[in-house]
Amino acid sequence: MVTSHPDPLNAPVERPDALAVTIYRWGRDHALLLDSIFAGVLLVLLGAASAFIADLPGLVVATLTIAPLAVRRRYPIAVLVWTLVMSIVQLVVVPIPLPGNIAQAVVIYTVAANVASFGVRSATLVAALVGSLLAGFRWSTPPDYGRHALAAAAVLAVLAALVWVIGNLVRGREENLRQLAGAVVQLEQGRRRLELFVAQRERVSAAREIHDIVAHSLTVVIVQADGAAYAAANADRWHRTQAREVLDVIGATARSALAEVRTVVDVLRDVDTRDVDTVSGASHDGQATGAELGRLVDSVRAAGVPVEFDSHPATFDALPFRLRFVVLRAVQESLTNVLKHAGSPVNAQVAIECTADDLCLRIVDDGPGRHVDEPATGTGAGHGLAGMRERVHELGGQFRAEHRPVRGFEVTVVIPLNTTVGERSAA
């Protein structure tokens, strides 16, 4: 089996050794042509030298040994078998070493550097060592025939082993480059998957923010518009002042929602903004404040739902921004659900309490209706409560939404104040 080596050097940057890299790649891509030229040069030089030393048998043996080097990298195992056969033939018909025997060292190197099978490479080394021993005894002459034969065999064996080791080192280097190239490809694929994952999280987060903004604002607008339409059609007297108040609430709610949606869209348009927390907290530090929370509660009151708000603005503003943002969205979504699902009559209560370790948020209503976007267990697939749960869990907190025993609905949020997410987002 011959190993194939993908290109690990296709770097798009300028390299100081660009010429060497170009030559290496050309030689690898044109292996057959380069090996043919190499075999031709050896045949001319070493074939003539072998003929000069051993006449016609030397020329024939050298030619048949050197010529297959033209396909040594394409068919290394076949060339190895052929070289073994020619080595046996040479030991039989030519009693002396030939310059063409250099081809045998080239074949040993080729197999060690290009064949993946360790068994084949090991068999090549064994054959080279046995051949060195046989050649030492075949080519040795008296006196001291045995000592000269062993010395020659030892020299040939050391040279063969050295060539084999060099070939294995080259094969190991090529294998390392191949694995490095594969690792680079996997790293690039991982980077692209991460970018896709971040982009998907940004879209999901933006959709979640826009859902909360639009759902709350449209609910307030619809309640105000329906109330105004009913009053205009059925009330004995409907003063301009009342109409102006309703329209003011509708206009302010719509303008606030438009500004918040624009903020989210602006964040998504910023190509340098890749942090999902930035999208989730698309508001600037000037938002998600106690004053904004108060305006949110006032808008619900203006829609006709009495809301008892138990929190000091200074305490809320002292919290990390990410924590304030999650609390603001939780209150917004919960009061929106009160407007949409609680029915009438209804009263709501919002309480924010900070202990030494946790922030506790509780939103309760006593309406007769059912919050249809989420079962009583708080584990359904409604977008509003699901979005709240995701935000709370990102901060390591606990979220609970359930129906009260008699009537009404309750949302409870507990978030640790030492959450690293909150601290990081506030930085």
From TrEMBL:
PANTHER family: NITRATE/NITRITE SENSOR PROTEIN NARX-RELATED, NITRATE_NITRITE SENSOR PROTEIN NARQ
Name this polypeptide is given: histidine kinase
EC numbers: 2.7.13.3
Keywords on record: ATP-binding, Kinase, Membrane, Nucleotide-binding, Phosphoprotein, Transferase, Transmembrane, Transmembrane helix, Two-component regulatory system
Catalytic activity: ATP + protein L-histidine = ADP + protein N-phospho-L-histidine
Coiled coil: none
Segments passing through the bilayer: 32-54, 74-94, 106-137, 149-170
Residue span(s) of domain Histidine kinase: 327-419
SUPFAM superfamilies named among the record's database cross-references: ATPase domain of HSP90 chaperone/DNA topoisomerase II/histidine kinase
InterPro entries reported in the protein's UniProt record: DUF7134 (IPR055558), HATPase_C_sf (IPR036890), HATPase_dom (IPR003594), His_kinase_dom (IPR005467), Sensor_HK_TwoCompSys (IPR050482), Sig_transdc_His_kin_sub3_dim/P (IPR011712)
Gene Ontology MF terms: kinase activity
Annotated source species: Nocardia rhizosphaerihabitans
Pfam families xrefs: DUF7134, HATPase_c, HisKA_3
